[in-house]
């Protein structure tokens, strides 16, 4: 049975709870609720953490509390302590380049301008060979508006679309944990 970290990216604090940048937290909250487990703050890993076991894997769900730009500090601390290799790390994050309601899996690659991914790569010694679950949030249309856009709440329609994409991501999670990444990608990318 493999050990996995599923890290959902976001910012701590009630002012950020419902913002687009926090869709990684939204997915982990849903996953924890479905599994019947609750997060606890763990200062060793600078995040909210819960561990549970499925038929596929032993899983640590991690919500870094370091703010988005320092997500890698929390992820690296947990991965290093439990000796979990990058290929058993799944990072859930918001994706400007996908419309709301779209979710994609990606293995490896750069940070694409996402500061949370940038810090995870930096704190992992440049290692990029981890899985990303990209939850589409849409783009404001102007790069100067991106910071305000990701830190604002989506419209009711966009939120509904994002929650639908989270459901899609959760549907393929057992395949991901069984190392059937291609099967998960094929299903998600045909939606």
Shape: globular
Order of helices and strands: EHEEEHEEHEHHH
**Helix share bin:** 25-40%
Roughly what is the average pLDDT, rounded to an integer? 95
The helix/strand class is: alpha/beta
Low-confidence stretches: none
Distinctive features:
alpha/beta; seven-stranded mixed sheet; 37% helix; 23% strand
Explain briefly what this protein structure is.
With 191 residues, the chain is α/β, with parallel strands linked by helices. It has helices spanning 23-35, 71-82, 115-123, 146-150, 156-177, 181-189, and strands at residues 2-8, 40-42, 47-53, 57-64, 89-95, 103-107, 131-136. Strands 2-3-4-1-5-7-6 form a seven-stranded mixed sheet, sandwiched between helices.
Structural summary, described in words:
- Helices cover about 35% and strands about 25% of the residues.
- With about 190 residues, the protein is an alpha/beta fold.
- Strands 2-3-4-1-5-7-6 form a seven-stranded mixed beta sheet, sandwiched between helices.
- A hairpin with a 4-residue loop joins strand 2 (about 40) and strand 3.
- The radius of gyration is 15 Å and the shape is globular.
- About 40% of the residues are buried.
- The model has no long low-confidence stretch (mean pLDDT about 95).
């Amino acid at each position: 049975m493999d050990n996995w970290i599923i890290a959902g990216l976001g910012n701590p604090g009630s002012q950020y709870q419902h913002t687009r940048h926090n869709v990684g937290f939204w997915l982990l909250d849903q996953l924890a609720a479905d599994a019947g487990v609750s997060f606890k703050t763990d200062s060793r890993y600078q995040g909210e953490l819960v561990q549970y076991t499925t038929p596929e894997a032993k899983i640590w769900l991690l919500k870094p509390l370091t703010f988005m730009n320092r997500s890698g500090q929390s992820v690296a601390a947990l991965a290093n302590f439990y000796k979990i290799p990058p290929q058993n790390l799944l990072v859930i994050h918001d994706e400007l380049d996908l419309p709301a309601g779209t979710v994609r899996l990606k293995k490896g690659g750069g940070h694409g301008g996402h500061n949370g991914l940038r810090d995870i790569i930096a704190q992992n010694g440049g290692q990029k060979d981890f899985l990303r679950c990209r939850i589409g949030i849409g783009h404001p249309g102007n790069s100067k508006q991106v910071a305000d856009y990701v830190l604002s709440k989506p419209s009711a329609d966009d939120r509904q679309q994002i929650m639908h994409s989270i459901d899609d991501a959760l549907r393929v999670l057992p395949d991901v944990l069984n190392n059937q990444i291609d099967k998960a990608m094929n299903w998600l990318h045909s939606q």
